[in-house]
C-alpha cells in the first residue's frame, strides 16, 4: 500500500483487519447502493441513499442496515489476503531492478483483480440476496402490483440456506453466477487503483523516504473512489445479474450483453450510474481505514508476539 516495507504476513493481517473495520463502518451505505442499483422503472421505492437508509430503519430496524454483513465479515479477510498477496507476487516478478513501469503496474493490478474473484464472486452473490431481501419485502407491502400473483411472503433466508439451495439446484456454478461481470468490474478496478495510488503517493514523497501518512491516506481515498466510480456501470450489471428475486414488473437477464441492452432500452444510460456516489462513499473510507491500519503497524505488532525461531 504505502511505501513502507512490510512483510507479506503483516500485509495480510493488516488487510484483513482493515477489511473487517471498513465493512462494519460502511456496510449500510453498501446496502443502499445494492437496493438503488436493483430497483427498476415502475418499482422505485427509494429516491436517494438517505431515503433508502431511513426507510430501511423504519421497516427493518437499525440492524436491517446490516443484512448480509456477516457474509462480508467472514470472507473479506481471505479476499483481501488473496488480493494483496497476488499484487505483491505480480509486482515482484514484473519489476526490473526494483522498478515498475506504469504498464507493468497495471498488469500487476490486473493479476490481483483476477485472483480475488475466487472469493469475491460467491461473497457478493450471497450478500446481494440478503441485502435486497428487504427491498422485495417492502415492495410486497407498499407496491403489491409489482409482485407476481400468488407469491407467498417467506421468512428472510440466511446465507447458509441460500448456499445450500444454490448448490443443490446448480452446483458450485450457482455460487459463481455473475463471474464474468465480477471480472469485468474487479480487474479494471485493480488496473486503475494500484497504479493510481502508487503514483499519487509518490507525489508526496521527499527523497527516498516514505510518503507522510496523510498523503497515503488521501491517495488511497482518491484512487479508491476514482476507480469505484469508473467501474460503476459494470457494478450495476453485476448486481442485476446476481439478484435472484425480482418483482413481476422487473426485467430478468440472460447475460451481460442482454443486461446492457435492456437497461439502455428501458432505463437509459443514466441507469449505469445508479449508486455511483454510494460506491465512492464505500470505497474511499475502506482504503482510508486500510492506510490507518498500515500506518499503525497492527500486523507487525501482532507478529512481534509470535515466538522467534532460533538460528
Structural account:
The protein is an all-alpha fold. Helix content is 70%, strand content 0%. It is built from 12 helices and no strands. The protein has helices at 8-38, 49-60, 69-94, 102-142, 159-170, 172-175, 179-203, 213-230, 232-242, 256-266, 276-296, 298-303. The model has no long low-confidence stretch (mean pLDDT 85).
Q: Radius of gyration in whole Å, from Cα?
A: 21 Å
Number of helices: 12
How much helicity do the residues have? over 70%
How is the biggest beta sheet arranged?
none
Number of strands: 0
Helix/strand order, N-terminal first: HHHHHHHHHHHH
Mean pLDDT: 85
Global structural class: mainly alpha
Note the beta-strand portion: under 5%
Shape, please? globular
The span between the termini is 31 Å
Uncertain runs are none
What's the short story on this structure?
It contains 12 helices and no strands.
Amino acid at each position: 500500500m504505502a511505501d513502507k516495507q512490510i512483510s507479506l504476513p503483516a500485509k495480510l493481517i493488516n488487510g484483513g483487519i482493515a477489511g473487517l473495520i471498513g465493512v462494519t463502518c460502511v456496510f449500510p451505505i453498501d446496502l443502499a447502493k445494492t437496493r438503488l442499483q436493483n430497483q427498476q422503472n415502475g418499482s422505485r421505492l427509494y429516491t436517494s441513499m438517505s431515503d433508502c437508509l431511513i426507510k430501511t430503519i423504519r421497516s427493518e430496524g437499525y440492524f436491517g442496515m446490516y443484512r448480509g454483513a456477516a457474509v462480508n465479515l467472514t470472507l473479506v479477510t481471505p479476499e483481501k489476503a488473496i488480493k494483496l498477496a497476488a499484487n505483491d507476487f505480480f509486482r515482484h516478478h514484473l519489476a526490473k531492478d526494483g522498478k515498475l513501469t506504469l504498464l507493468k503496474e497495471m498488469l500487476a493490478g490486473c493479476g490481483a483483480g483476477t485472483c480475488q474473484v475466487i472469493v469475491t464472486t460467491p461473497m457478493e452473490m450471497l450478500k446481494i440476496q440478503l441485502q435486497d431481501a428487504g427491498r422485495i419485502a417492502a415492495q410486497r407491502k407498499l407496491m403489491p402490483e409489482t409482485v407476481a400473483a400468488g407469491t407467498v411472503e417467506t421468512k428472510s433466508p440466511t446465507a447458509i440456506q441460500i448456499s445450500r439451495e444454490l448448490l443443490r439446484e446448480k452446483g458450485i456454478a450457482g455460487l459463481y453466477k455473475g463471474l464474468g461481470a465480477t471480472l469485468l468490474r474487479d480487474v479494471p478496478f485493480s488496473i486503475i487503483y494500484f497504479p493510481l495510488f502508487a503514483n499519487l503517493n509518490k507525489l508526496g514523497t521527499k527523497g527516498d523516504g516514505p510518503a507522510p501518512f496523510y498523503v497515503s491516506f488521501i491517495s488511497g481515498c482518491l484512487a479508491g473512489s476514482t476507480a469505484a466510480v469508473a467501474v460503476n456501470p459494470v457494478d450495476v450489471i453485476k448486481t442485476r445479474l446476481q439478484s435472484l428475486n425480482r418483482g413481476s414488473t422487473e426485467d430478468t437477464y440472460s447475460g451481460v450483453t442482454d443486461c446492457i441492452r435492456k437497461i439502455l432500452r428501458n432505463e437509459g444510460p443514466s441507469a449505469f450510474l445508479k449508486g455511483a456516489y454510494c460506491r465512492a462513499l464505500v470505497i474511499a473510507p475502506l482504503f482510508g481505514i486500510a492506510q490507518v491500519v498500515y500506518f499503525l503497524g497492527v500486523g507487525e505488532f501482532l507478529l512481534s508476539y509470535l515466538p522467534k525461531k532460533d538460528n
